[in-house]
Amino acid sequence: MDNFQAIGLTSSALSENVQRFVVEATSASTRRAYRADVKIFVTWCEESGLVAIPATAITIADFLASQAQTGISPSTLNRRIGAIRYAHEAAGYETPTTNKLVSVTLKGIRRANRVRTRKKAAATVDKLYQMIAHCNTQTLQGKRDKLILILGFAGAFRRSELVALTVADIEEAPDGLKILIQKSKTDQEGEGHTIAILNGRLNVVGVLKDYLKAANLTEGAIFRPITKYGKIRKQTLTDRSVADIVKRYAKAAGLNAEEFSGHSLRSGFITTAAEAGANLFKIMDISRHKSVQTVQGYVRNAELFKNHAGNSFL
């Protein structure tokens, strides 16, 4: 069954209905990552003369150690453990990834690695203005890119959420836009979440209308590929393209493009809101974070020098 094979497995033991629902339990982006990780694991096992599914804890520990020796980061290894776990569970096997040997091996790799993950830069509002200044709004691509940057920032969108937006998901309101996010990382059941986007100084409503009119879009996906001749395609833009667009305009603005990613728009809104003293829970209304601790991390970074303990004597 093609859908079940999307996670890199086949199983005659499971009915097609069960296989279909197993696959639907994860998002498309997660399945892509899992498929790649499981393929790497299976290939390594075949080359080592070991059984991949079901695997033993010793096999997985050896795999992790081998991967670490080639320079694979602990965060990537952690994701691969998740893929291996999901592959076993989806095929109806007990997962060996919970074995103490696996967790201890990964912990040892982390300690030996000791490399602090470098976070991507936040596209705060000042940087956003620098970036959109380089959008050529005389072209359809420039109009689209400007909307991606502005809407991605104003709605603190994950890039997968941004490219999934359709015309029907957006409703104009007196103060801006109401946008329905049909499915997201923290809403895998697809219950949906509506957020408010202020029109504000960025003129989100005007930029949206300008693009939709120029693209002649009245339904379907909002963000789509555009040919070099300025023709808009029918398919949806990929989330990878959002990251490329952010990097392109960061470079045009004289910023270090390597420090920016698709996540920079989302983190830019949260950081800017925190710097402006916005209420933590109001920020979470837009960002849709489930964890207060996650958002507090942004707030702490934004307020490092605010009311500093050394203000009176340093």
TrEMBL record:
GO terms for MF: DNA binding
Domain Core-binding (CB), first and last residues per copy: 12-92
A Gene Ontology BP annotation from the UniProt entry: DNA integration
Keyword annotations of the record: DNA integration, DNA recombination, DNA-binding
Entry-linked Gene3D superfamilies: 1.10.150.130, Intergrase catalytic core
Pfam families the record matches: Phage_int_SAM_1, Phage_integrase
InterPro entries: CB, DNA_brk_join_enz, Integrase-like_cat_sf, Integrase_catalytic, Integrase_recombinase_N, Integrase_SAM-like_N, Phage_Integrase-like_Recomb
Domain of life: Bacteria
TM helices/strands, residue ranges: none
Domain Tyr recombinase, first and last residues per copy: 118-314
SUPFAM superfamilies for this protein: DNA breaking-rejoining enzymes (SSF56349), lambda integrase-like, N-terminal domain (SSF47823)
Keyword DNA-binding among record annotations: yes
Record's protein name: Site-specific integrase
Organism encoding this protein: Thiothrix subterranea
